[in-house]
Specification:
The complex is a heterodimer of chains A (571) and B (1101).
Chain A: H1 2-17, H2 22-25, E1 34-35, H3 43-62, E2 79-81, H4 92-95, H5 101-123, H6 131-156, H7 178-195, H8 209-222, H9 226-237, H10 269-272, E3 288-292, E4 295-296, E5 302-303, H11 313-317, E6 353-355, H12 357-360, E7 379-380, H13 405-409, E8 417-418, E9 432-434, E10 439-440, E11 451-455, H14 456-470, H15 473-486, H16 499-510, H17 516-523, H18 526-533, H19 552-557
Parallel strand pairs in A: 4-5
Antiparallel strand pairs in A: 2-6, 3-11, 7-8, 9-10
Helix pairs in contact in A: 3-5, 3-6, 5-6, 6-7, 7-8, 8-9, 8-14, 9-14, 14-15, 14-16
Chain B: H1 2-20, H2 22-25, H3 28-31, E1 33-42, H4 43-53, E2 57-59, E3 70-79, H5 80-88, E4 93-98, E5 101-106, E6 128-134, E7 145-148, E8 154-156, E9 162-166, E10 173-177, E11 184-187, E12 193-197, E13 208-210, E14 215-217, E15 225-227, E16 252-254, E17 266-268, E18 281-284, E19 287-288, E20 301-307, H6 310-313, E21 324-329, E22 340-352, H7 361-371, H8 373-376, E23 377-378, E24 384-385, H9 398-406, H10 412-416, E25 420-432, E26 436-448, E27 455-470, E28 473-485, H11 493-498, E29 531-548, E30 555-574, H12 577-580, E31 583-606, E32 609-632, E33 649-672, E34 676-687, E35 696-707, E36 721-733, E37 743-745, E38 765-768, E39 777-790, E40 795-814, E41 823-846, E42 850-867, E43 895-899, E44 901-904, E45 920-922, E46 937-942, E47 947-957, E48 960-970, E49 977-979, H13 987-992, E50 1025-1027, E51 1030-1041, H14 1044-1050, E52 1054-1068, E53 1090-1100
The chains are: A mainly alpha (571), B mainly beta (1101).
Chain lengths: 571, 1101
C-alpha cells in the first residue's frame, strides 16, 4: 500500500513538475479582434479600411440627436436656433469656447479620418496588392485625407499636418500655416482627381474623380488659382455622365405632390431630386456627384425605424405644429397631436432649428411665383387645422381671423419649412403606426433618404465664383443661369453677379445640403453675414468667431510643444 | 465511525440532562444491566455496543485507548460497571464512571494538574462541577483548560469539550482558557452544571493566520495581516460576506451596495494605481478567486485574513499590489465528534436610508413656471405672477398640458418601489474524526429590492471533504456550486425619476400608456414587463493532495488543483422594446479557469533555530467566450426569446479571450530562539498580457520581527506581549490582457451600405496604439508595526505605519487626438502613499455576568503624485502637471482642480457674458472678465478622506449580547469631496420632466440656494463640490442565547435568537441619496442605500 502510493506520488511530481515552454505558454493571441499587423495585407482588408472612412465621414455630417452635429448649417445666415435659447448653437460666446464638446468633436473626428487614411497610405507599399490596386486605394485614401484637411483648415485655420501613421505616442505637434495645409490638400486631391475611377464606374456612394476635382477646385479658389479651379470644374461639368435633371424623373416621375389639407403645385424636377430612392445614379439621377448612403434597418445603413440614429434633420428642422398644445381661436385643441407624415403636419418634428427670414423671404423676392424651388410643396408656407373636433377644421391656422393664438405665443410651434428636410407621405413603411392616416411612430424623426454631399449645381456655382473672381462676368452669369433655368427662375445679367448673389443662389438651390458654415468660413464672410441675416446670433457674434478655437483638450494633451490658440479665444 | 459519532452526540445531549439532575440519577450505573455476546471484537465495537444498549457515554482520547484490542465478552444481565472492570481491569487503560459518563484514561502517575480528577465514588459528588466549553457556534473546544481560580486545581476538557472538576471551595471561580480565545472567568455559584462559551479572540496570539500557501501563528508574523472578526457581524443581513468588513478593519475600504446581489468595491490601503487594475486579489481556500463575490455564501466562511503590507502580499507577487483577501471556508472541526447540524435563518426588511420623493403636482407646476420665469412672472424682479402667462407658452408637451388642466397627480416613484425583503436559510452539517472530516452546507437566499422587480436569488451548496488515507497522506476537496438568479428587470429608474407627475402610467381601461409624454419615450414600467431570465452558475472544485513525505521529517508536498466553471445566461424579450416593435435576445457567456499549484514545505527546528521553507510552482489559465443573438421587430413575441429568428432585424455577436499566468515562489520563515523572526520571499511571475520581453517579473520581500516581551530583561511573569515588526517588499500590478497590442476594431459607425437594397460593407480601423514596452506596475512598500497585548489580555491591538511608492504606473496617457488615438497604455510616473493604521480592543468590564468590550479602529492615508512624465516644457524648473488628466505633482490623485463657485448669478447682477441668471457665478481668478479653463481653475480640495474610524461595542449580560458598530469617514479640510450637481437638461426637458424634492434649485423667488438652475446653458459649466463626511450607526444587534438549561430538555445544543438593525442612522451634510456611495441629488439611475431590520435565529443540534 505505502509503496504504491509513493509510486503514484512520484508520477504526479514528475507530471506537474515538468517545465513547460514558458514563452509559448505566455504568448498572447487575439481571439475576437484583429491586430494591426495582420489587417492591412490584402485588397479586401483595404476595402474594409476605406469603408470605415465612408462610415465616419457620414457620421460627422449626419450624426444623431446631439447638439454637436448640425452646426455646419446652424448659426449661419440660413439657419438659427428655433427655440431662441442658448442651446443648439444659440450663443457664439458659449459655444465657441475651447472647452466646448462640439469644438473638440469636429477636431477629433476629422483627425481620426486623417490618421486612418495615413495608416492605409503608409502600409500600402508592403501590402499584397498589385500596383494598379495600390494606386486606386491610395487615391481614395488621399481623397479622404484631403477632405479632412479641407474641413480642418476652414474651421480652425492652419492646423498641424500629420501625414504618417503614428505608431508611438507623440505630443509635440505644432500648427502649420494655412498655406501649407492648402498645399497638402492640393497634393492629395490632385492625386485623387488623377487616379480615382470615373463616376460611371463607381458604386453608388463612392467617390469618383469628379468629386475630387470639385473639392480641388475649391482649394484652388482659396489660393487664388482661378484657371486651375476652372479647369478642374470643367472636368466635372463637361463629363458626359453628368447633367442637371431638367425633366421629371425617378420613383414619382408621373405623380404630383399630395396632401389631405394643403393645395400643392404640380410636381417638378427639383421636387424629384428629394424623393426617397432618387438620389443615386442608379435611380436615374445624373446631377448627383457624391451621395451619403442611408438605409433603414440595415446594419451600416445608419437609419432605424425603432431607435434614434443618423440624420435626424426632420426632428430638428421641422416645426412642432403637430403638438396637442396648439389651440384654435376658441381655445380648443386644433391639431391632432400626432406625428403625421405629410406637408401639413410635417412629420415628427420638434422645431429646434429654423430658417432665417433671409432664406424664407429675401432670396425669393424676384421670382416668388415662378421659381419652382419656392413652390408650395418645396417650401411649405401654410398649415391647416386638422383636428375634426375643432370648429376651424380644414381652415388655415395662419390667416386672420382664424389664426392660431399658439403660433403667436410660441414661435417655434410653426414656421415655413423646406420640404426636403422630411419625406412627406413617403416615410419608410415600418415607421407608421397607422399607415392609413399616415401617423408615424414616436421613433420617427430622421430624413429617410440618401443625402447629397455634392450635387452638380454646386459645381456650376463654384465655377461661377471662379469666373467672377477672374473677371469673366458673362461666364459667371451663364453658369448661374444654368442652375436658375432648371428652376424656371429668370436669368440674370452680368451686373447682377457678385459673391453675395452666388451665396443667394446657393441658398435657393442648396439649403440643408451645402455645408453653409464651411462655405462662409472659406469665403471669410461668416461673421458679416450672421450679423446681417441671423436674428438670433447676429448680436453676439464677434469678429474672431470666423475661425473656431483650437480645442483646449488638444492644446493640453500636446505636452511637448505649444499649439497656438486662434486669436480672440482664451489661451 | 459515523454511526458512533452520532450516537455519542445524542448521548452527550442526554448527559447534560443527567448532570443537571445529578442526584436523582447518580445510581444509574448501579442499576443498569445489559446482555452481551461478542466474540473477538475490538474495544471500539464494544463501546459502540454498550452505548447502543444504554445511556452510557464514553469519554476518551483516541491515543490513550487501544481501540483495536480484540476482546470477547459474554454477559447476561450484568452491571455495566462489572463488565468494564473485566475488560479494562488489568490493561493500561483505567475507567471511571461518573453518572452516565464513562471516562477512559491512560494509566499513569497523576503528576499533571490538568487532568480529570475523577471522584472515586459518585456519592462524594457534592463538590463536583461538570460542564462543557464551546465556541460561539457551540462547537466543543477539546483541551480547554479549566482551573479553579487561586489554586493549582485544574482539568482539561475532553474531546467533546466536557469537563468535571472537583472543587476545593464551594463558591469557586473557574478560569477557562483556550488557544485563540479570550480567557473567561465563571462564578460557580453552587451550580453543578456550567456551559462556558468562549469568544474568539481576534488578536489572540496563538491564533493561526492564513498567509497564503500555508499558515502561520499570529505571534510569528512579520507583516501586517489583519483577521476579520466575522462573528461580530453574523447578525447583519449581509448578502455578501464582504459587507461584514465595512469599516471594521483599518486600511480596508469596502464600498456601499444598493442593488440586490451586488458586490461591494474593495480596496486596501491607499490608491496605488491610476489606470491599472485596482481590484483586491481574493484567494478562496488557496485558489485565486475571480468569480462574483456574491456567489460566496457568507455562512460558509470560517475566516478572512487580509494581507496588507508588501512583504505579506509578496507571495502573490504580480497580482498583489491592491491587497490580498484570503478566505477560508469551514471544515469539519478536528476534535469535534459526531455530526453537528446547524440551521440558521433570518428575515430582513429594508427601506431607503433617505426618504426622498419626487416633486408632486404643485411643486412640479411651480418648477415649470420657475424655469420660464421671464414669462411666468413680471419683470424686472420677476416676483409677481404674470396674469397673461399661459402654459401653452412653455415647451410642455400636450400630455403635460392636459395633466395640468385635468388635475392629475401620480407618484411614479411610489409606484416603482416597495419594502425590501431578504430571506435567508442556511443548513449545514459537519463532522470530523481521525479518518475523515466534512462540512456540507446548503443556502437559499432571496432578496427583493426596494425597486420592484429588482430581485436576487441564490442557491448554493458546498462540500468540503478531507480524508486521511494514511497517517502521512491526505486527499481532499473543497467544492461549491452557486446558482444566482437575477431574473426580472426593474422599471427604468432614471425614467421613473424624470417623468412628470401630471401624466400617469395606465389609461382609464387599466392598460399601460405607451408613451406617457407622447415623445416616443416608452412608459418607464415597460422595462419591468420584459420576459427575462438572468442566471449565473459558478461551480468550483479544489482538489488537493497533501503528503508528509515519509523518511524526511518536516517535509510536506501539496498539490492544489482547481477547476472552476462559470456561466451566465441572460435571455430577454419585451414586446414594448425597440419603439414598441419588440426586441429579444439570448446572451450566453462561459468562463473557465484552471490553477495548479505545487507546494513543497520543509519545517524543522534545531536547537534555537526554527526554519520553514516553502517552495511554490504553479500555472493559472483563464478562458472566456460569449455569444449573443438578438432580434428586433416582432409581429408575434408569444414564443418570447425562444424563436429569435422571427425578428425583422437579426444580429449576432460573439467574443472570446484567454490569458495565462506562470509563477514560482520561495519563502523562508526563520525564527531564532523565541523572539527573533525573519520572513523572506521571492516570487517570479509571468503574465501573457505584457509585451514580449516584459512578460515576467521578480518580486522580493523581507520582514523582521522582534518579540520584545520574550527578552530575558522583560518581566516574564506578566502576561504582557509586545512585538515590533519591520518589512519591505515589492508587488506588481497587472494590465489588461491585450493592452500592449495595436488593435483594429470594427464597429457600427464604420459599417456602410453602398447603394440601395444591397448588403452591408464592414469597415475597420485602428483602435489602440501598441506599446512594446508595457510592463508591470511596481509597488514598493515599507511597513513598521507594533503588536501589543497588555493589562492581562485586557488591551490588545496593533499599530502599522506604511510608506508605499508605486512606479511605472500603468496609465492611459492622454495623447493628442492628432495621433488618431486619445490615449495609450503606458508606464509612467510614481505615486506615494503614506498611512497609519491603528486597531485596539479593550475589555472595559469583565464580570461573570456582564462584560463590555470596545474595539476601535482608525486609519489615515495620504496620497501624493511624486512624478509623472518628468518633463518641464514650460521651463519653470518644476515638473509639469498633467492637467488634462487631473494629475498634479505633489498633490493627491483625487485632487479637485476646477472652477470655484461663489454663488449664483442673480437677475440684478451685472452678468458676465456667456452666463445667465440662475447659473453658477464662477470666480474669475485672473480678473480678465471671462472664464477660461486655463486661467480660472483652482485647487478646490480632494476626493480622498483624511481618516476613517470604526467603533465596535459589545455588551454581554448573562445570555444576552448587544453589539453596535459606528462607522465614519472624515475628510478633514477640503477632503472627501465630490461634485453634487442637479439634473441638467434643455429647458424643454427641464419643464417636461421631474426630480426629487429634497433640494431647491435657483429661481427668482428662491435666489439664495445651493444649487443652480438645471436649464441654464452657461459658456462654462461649473460643478459644485461638497463634503461627504458622515458618521453612520452601521450595525446594531441584540442576541439572546437560550440557556442550556432550557435547551437540554429540547436536545438542542444551542439556540440563538436575534434582532439587528443596519444603517439605521446616518449623520451627514451631504444632500441626496448617500455620502458613502457618492450618490447625490442628480436624478439618474441611482439606487438608494438601504437600512434594514433583521430577525433571525440560529440553532445547532
Amino acid at each position: 500500500m505505502k509503496n504504491s502510493i509513493i509510486k503514484i506520488f512520484c508520477v504526479i511530481v514528475l507530471f506537474t513538475g515538468i517545465s513547460c515552454d514558458e514563452d509559448e505558454f505566455l504568448k498572447e493571441t487575439p481571439l475576437d479582434f484583429y491586430s494591426l499587423d495582420t489587417s492591412y495585407k490584402d485588397l479586401s482588408q483595404y476595402d474594409r479600411a476605406l469603408t470605415a472612412l465612408y462610415g465616419k465621414v457620414r457620421e460627422i455630417h449626419f450624426g444623431g440627436y446631439d447638439t454637436k452635429y448640425f452646426c455646419y448649417w446652424l448659426a449661419t445666415d440660413l439657419v438659427y436656433n428655433g427655440r431662441e435659447n442658448n442651446l443648439y448653437f444659440g450663443d457664439y460666446n458659449s459655444w465657441l469656447d475651447p472647452t466646448n464638446d462640439m469644438v473638440a468633436y469636429h477636431w477629433d473626428s476629422w483627425y481620426k479620418i486623417v490618421t486612418n487614411a495615413n495608416t492605409i497610405i503608409d502600409r500600402l507599399p508592403a501590402s499584397d496588392l498589385s500596383d494598379s490596386e495600390k494606386l486606386m486605394v491610395e487615391a481614395e485614401a488621399r481623397f479622404f485625407r484631403g477632405l479632412a484637411y479641407r474641413y480642418l483648415v476652414y474651421l480652425y485655420g492652419g492646423v498641424p499636418l500629420v501625414l504618417e501613421e503614428v505608431s508611438v505616442p507623440k505630443s509635440d505637434f505644432t500648427r502649420a500655416t494655412k498655406e501649407e495645409v492648402f498645399d497638402q490638400i492640393e497634393i492629395d486631391l490632385s492625386f485623387a482627381a488623377n487616379n480615382l475611377p470615373k463616376i460611371s464606374e463607381v458604386q453608388d456612394g463612392k467617390v469618383s474623380n469628379l468629386v475630387a476635382n470639385h473639392y480641388l477646385a475649391e482649394i484652388y479658389l482659396s489660393i487664388n488659382e482661378f484657371d486651375n479651379a476652372i479647369n478642374a470644374l470643367n472636368v466635372v461639368i463637361n463629363d458626359a455622365n453628368t447633367g442637371l435633371m431638367t425633366d421629371r424623373f425617378g420613383v414619382k416621375a408621373t405623380e404630383d405632390p399630395q396632401d389631405d389639407f394643403l393645395d400643392l403645385g404640380p410636381g417638378d424636377p427639383y421636387w424629384d431630386l428629394f424623393r426617397p430612392g432618387n438620389q443615386n445614379r442608379s435611380g436615374g439621377n445624373n446631377e448627383a456627384l457624391w451621395v451619403a448612403q442611408l438605409e433603414v434597418d440595415i446594419i451600416g445603413g445608419g437609419l432605424s425605424s425603432t431607435t434614434s440614429q443618423l440624420n435626424q434633420l426632420e426632428i430638428w428642422a421641422g416645426n412642432a405644429s403637430y403638438g396637442s398644445a396648439v389651440q384654435d381661436p376658441d381655445g380648443v385643441q386644433a391639431m391632432l397631436g400626432l406625428p403625421i407624415s405629410g406637408y401639413n403636419a410635417g412629420g415628427r418634428a420638434y422645431g429646434l432649428i429654423r430658417n432665417t427670414d433671409y432664406y424664407l423671404n429675401d432670396v425669393w423676392q424676384s421670382d416668388w411665383d415662378n421659381d419652382i424651388r419656392n413652390a408650395p410643396h418645396n417650401i411649405v408656407r401654410e398649415v391647416k387645422y386638422n383636428n375634426p373636433n375643432s370648429a376651424y377644421y380644414g381652415l388655415s391656422a395662419l390667416e386672420e381671423p382664424n389664426r392660431s393664438p399658439t403660433f403667436d405665443a410660441v414661435t417655434w410651434r410653426w414656421y415655413p419649412w423646406p420640404s426636403k428636410i422630411s419625406t412627406p407621405g413617403e416615410h419608410p413603411e415600418q415607421l407608421y403606426q397607422d399607415r392609413e392616416n399616415n401617423i408615424l411612430l414616436g421613433s420617427a424623426g430622421s430624413t429617410y433618404r440618401d443625402m447629397y454631399y455634392l450635387r452638380l449645381p454646386e459645381s456650376y456655382l463654384l465655377r461661377a465664383e471662379a469666373f467672377f473672381r477672374k473677371g469673366e462676368l458673362q461666364n459667371a452669369a451663364d453658369d448661374i443661369n444654368v442652375v436658375r433655368e432648371r428652376s424656371n427662375a429668370a436669368p440674370i445679367t452680368t451686373t447682377d453677379v457678385s459673391i453675395d448673389y452666388i451665396l443667394d443662389e446657393r441658398a435657393r438651390e442648396l439649403v440643408y445640403e451645402e455645408f453653409r458654415r464651411i462655405t462662409l468660413h472659406r469665403l471669410g464672410n461668416l461673421v458679416e453675414r450672421v450679423r446681417q441675416y441671423n436674428p438670433w446670433n447676429g448680436d453676439e457674434i464677434q469678429d474672431h468667431h470666423g475661425l473656431w478655437p483650437i480645442p483646449f483638450s488638444a492644446i493640453e494633451a500636446n505636452t511637448n510643444a505649444v499649439l497656438e490658440q486662434n486669436p480672440g479665444y482664451p489661451q | 465511525m459515523l454511526k458512533l459519532s452520532l450516537k455519542m452526540k445524542i448521548s452527550m445531549l442526554s448527559m447534560f440532562l443527567v448532570l443537571f439532575t445529578m442526584q436523582a440519577n447518580s445510581s444509574y450505573a448501579q442499576r443498569t444491566k445489559i446482555t452481551l455476546d461478542l466474540n473477538n471484537v475490538t474495544i471500539e465495537r464494544l463501546i459502540d455496543e454498550i452505548e447502543s444498549q444504554t445511556d452510557f457515554h464514553f469519554v476518551y482520547q483516541i491515543k490513550e485507548v487501544d481501540l483495536s484490542r480484540l476482546v470477547s465478552v459474554k454477559a447476561n444481565k450484568e452491571l455495566v460497571t462489572s463488565i468494564l472492570e473485566r475488560i479494562f481491569g488489568n490493561t493500561r487503560t483505567t475507567h471511571n464512571v461518573v453518572d452516565k459518563q464513562i471516562f477512559l484514561k491512560e494509566r499513569e502517575p497523576q503528576s499533571n494538574n490538568f487532568s480529570p480528577k475523577v471522584p472515586s465514588s459518585p456519592i462524594e459528588l457534592q463538590m463536583v462541577v461538570s460542564g462543557i466549553v464551546t465556541d460561539n457556534d457551540g462547537t466543543p473546544l477539546p483541551g480547554a483548560n479549566v482551573v479553579e481560580k487561586g489554586t493549582t486545581n485544574g482539568v482539561t476538557a475532553d474531546f467533546d469539550g466536557n469537563f468535571n472538576i472537583d472543587l476545593e471551595e464551594n463558591n469557586a471561580v473557574l478560569v477557562v482558557s483556550y488557544i485563540g480565545f479570550a480567557t473567561k472567568e465563571v462564578v460557580v455559584n453552587e451550580k453543578s452544571n456550567i456551559t462556558v462559551v468562549l469568544e474568539e479572540d481576534a488578536a489572540g496570539l496563538d491564533e493561526v493566520v492564513v498567509v497564503g500557501y500555508g499558515t502561520q501563528n499570529r505571534i510569528d508574523l512579520t507583516g501586517a495581516v489583519a483577521s476579520v472578526n466575522l462573528d461580530d457581524f453574523r447578525e447583519a443581513p449581509n448578502v455578501n460576506v464582504f459587507q461584514s468588513l465595512q469599516g471594521t478593519i483599518p486600511g480596508i475600504q469596502i464600498g456601499q451596495v444598493n442593488q440586490t446581489g451586488e458586490s461591494p468595491s474593495i480596496s486596501v490601503r491607499g490608491q496605488t494605481t491610476i489606470n491599472g487594475n485596482s481590484d483586491v486579489l481574493v484567494v478562496l481556500d488557496g485558489i485565486i478567486y475571480r468569480g462574483n463575490l456574491s456567489d460566496i455564501n457568507p455562512n460558509d466562511i470560517q475566516s478572512i485574513d487580509v494581507l496588507k503590507d508588501a512583504s505579506s502580499k509578496a507571495i502573490y507577487g504580480a497580482q498583489a499590489a491592491n491587497g490580498v483577501l484570503l478566505i477560508t471556508s469551514k471544515k469539519g472541526k478536528t476534535g469535534q465528534q459526531g455530526n453537528r447540524i446547524n440551521y440558521s435563518t433570518y428575515m430582513s426588511i429594508q427601506f431607503p436610508t433617505v426618504n426622498a420623493s419626487l416633486l408632486n403636482r404643485e411643486e412640479w407646476i411651480q418648477k415649470v413656471k420657475d424655469s420660464q420665469y421671464q414669462d411666468a412672472y413680471l419683470g424686472p424682479d420677476y416676483l409677481e405672477e404674470n396674469p397673461a402667462f399661459d402654459f401653452n407658452m412653455t415647451s410642455l408637451r400636450g400630455t403635460n398640458l392636459d395633466g395640468i388642466s385635468n388635475g392629475s397627480n401620480f407618484d411614479w416613484f411610489d409606484e416603482a418601489t416597495q419594502t425590501g425583503l431578504i430571506q435567508n436559510h442556511n443548513f449545514s452539517i459537519s463532522g470530523a474524526n481521525e479518518a475523515v472530516s466534512y462540512f456540507v452546507s446548503a443556502n437559499h437566499l432571496k432578496q427583493d429590492g426596494i425597486i420592484k422587480n429588482d430581485t436576487y436569488k441564490r442557491n448554493s451548496v458546498r462540500i468540503n471533504l478531507e480524508t486521511n488515507v494514511a497517517s502521512w497522506l491526505k486527499f481532499g476537496i473543497n467544492s461549491f456550486a452557486a446558482f444566482g438568479n437575477r431574473s426580472g428587470i426593474h422599471p427604468n429608474l432614471s425614467s421613473i425619476m424624470q417623468i412628470s407627475p401630471v401624466v400617469g402610467w395606465k389609461d382609464s381601461d387599466g392598460d399601460y400608456i405607451l408613451s406617457p409624454l407622447e415623445d416616443g419615450t416608452a412608459n418607464p414600467f415597460f422595462n419591468s414587463l420584459a420576459d427575462n431570465e438572468d442566471l449565473n452558475q459558478n461551480i468550483s472544485g479544489n482538489f488537493y493532495f497533501d503528503a508528509d513525505i515519509p523518511f524526511i521529517k518536516g517535509l510536506n508536498y501539496r498539490i492544489n488543483y482547481n477547476n472552476s466553471s462559470r456561466t451566465t445566461s441572460n435571455f430577454y424579450s419585451n414586446i414594448y422594446d425597440n419603439g414598441f416593435s419588440g426586441a429579444a435576445f439570448k446572451n450566453n457567456t462561459a468562463s473557465k479557469e484552471m490553477l495548479l499549484d505545487n507546494i513543497l514545505t520543509y519545517d524543522k527546528a534545531f536547537d534555537d533555530h526554527h526554519v520553514k521553507l516553502t517552495l511554490v510552482s504553479g500555472i493559472n489559465t483563464r478562458e472566456y467566450n460569449s455569444t449573443e443573438a438578438r432580434g428586433q421587430g416582432y409581429s408575434d413575441l408569444s414564443l418570447s426569446y425562444n424563436s429569435l429568428q422571427q425578428g425583422d432585424i437579426q444580429t449576432i455577436n460573439s467574443g472570446a479571450w484567454d490569458e495565462s499566468y506562470v509563477y514560482q515562489m520561495a519563502r523562508l520563515n526563520y525564527k531564532f530562539k523565541t523572539q527573533y523572526l525573519l520572513t523572506a520571499t521571492l516570487r517570479r511571475d509571468g503574465f501573457s498580457g505584457f509585451a514580449p520581453g516584459n512578460k515576467t517579473g521578480l518580486f522580493p520581500s523581507i520582514g523582521l520581527g522582534w518579540i520584545v516581551s520574550e527578552e530575558p530583561f522583560m518581566n516574564k511573569t506578566s502576561n504582557n506581549y509586545l512585538k515590533l515588526r519591520a518589512s519591505y517588499g515589492q508587488n506588481g500590478n497587472l494590465t489588461n490582457r491585450y493592452s500592449s497590442l495595436a488593435t483594429v476594431s470594427t464597429n457600427a459607425s464604420s459599417y456602410y451600405v453602398f447603394g440601395d437594397g444591397v448588403s452591408t460593407s464592414i469597415g475597420h480601423n485602428p483602435s489602440t496604439l501598441a506599446n512594446e514596452n508595457l510592463t508591470w506596475e511596481r509597488t514598493k512598500e515599507l511597513n513598521f508595526g507594533l503588536d501589543f497585548n497588555v493589562f492581562n489580555n485586557r488591551l490588545d491591538g496593533s499599530i502599522n505605519y506604511y510608506n508605499t511608492n508605486t512606479n511605472d504606473l500603468l496609465w492611459d496617457l492622454n495623447v493628442p487626438t492628432l495621433t488618431g488615438f486619445s490615449s495609450v497604455k503606458t508606464n509612467i510616473g510614481e505615486i506615494n502613499n503614506k498611512g497609519i493604521e491603528l486597531t485596539a480592543n479593550y475589555q472595559i468590564l469583565n464580570g461573570s455576568d456582564f462584560t463590555w468590550d470596545i474595539g476601535v479602529n482608525f486609519s489615515s492615508n495620504k496620497n501624493k503624485v511624486v512624478t509623472l512624465l518628468g518633463q518641464d516644457v514650460d521651463g519653470d524648473g518644476v515638473e509639469d502637471d498633467l492637467i488634462a488628466s487631473g494629475l498634479f505633482i505633489g498633490k493627491s490623485i483625487g485632487t479637485i482642480y476646477d472652477y470655484e463657485v461663489e454663488g449664483i448669478w442673480q437677475i440684478d447682477d451685472d452678468i458676465m457674458p456667456g452666463f445667465e441668471p440662475g447659473s453658477y457665478k464662477i470666480v474669475d481668478q485672473n480678473g480678465d472678465g471671462s472664464i477660461s479653463a486655463s486661467d480660472d481653475r483652482v485647487f478646490l480640495g480632494r476626493t480622498e478622506p483624511l481618516y476613517r474610524f470604526g467603533i465596535q461595542n459589545t455588551f454581554q449580560y448573562k445570555d444576552f449580547s448587544l453589539r453596535f458598530f459606528i462607522n465614519s469617514v472624515q475628510g478633514g479640510e477640503n477632503g472627501y469631496m465630490s461634485a453634487n450637481n442637479p439634473y441638467y437638461a434643455s429647458i424643454g426637458d427641464i419643464q417636461n420632466r421631474n426630480w426629487f424634492n429634497s433640494y431647491e434649485l435657483w429661481s427668482p423667488q428662491n435666489p439664495d440656494v445651493k444649487y443652480e438652475a438645471g436649464y441654464t446653458s452657461p459658456a462654462v459649466r461649473a460643478s459644485r463640490y461638497f463634503s461627504r463626511n458622515f458618521v453612520r450607526f452601521q450595525d446594531i444587534s441584540l442576541a439572546y442565547n437560550v440557556p442550556t438549561s432550557v435547551l437540554d430538555q429540547l436536545k438542542i445544543d444551542r439556540l440563538k435568537l436575534y434582532v439587528s438593525g443596519k444603517n439605521l442612522l446616518t449623520l451627514t451634510d451631504w444632500d441626496g441619496w448617500d455620502p458613502e456611495s457618492a450618490q447625490g441629488i442628480y436624478t439618474g439611475d441611482n439606487f438608494p442605500v438601504l437600512k434594514s431590520i433583521t430577525f433571525g435565529l440560529d440553532i445547532s443540534f
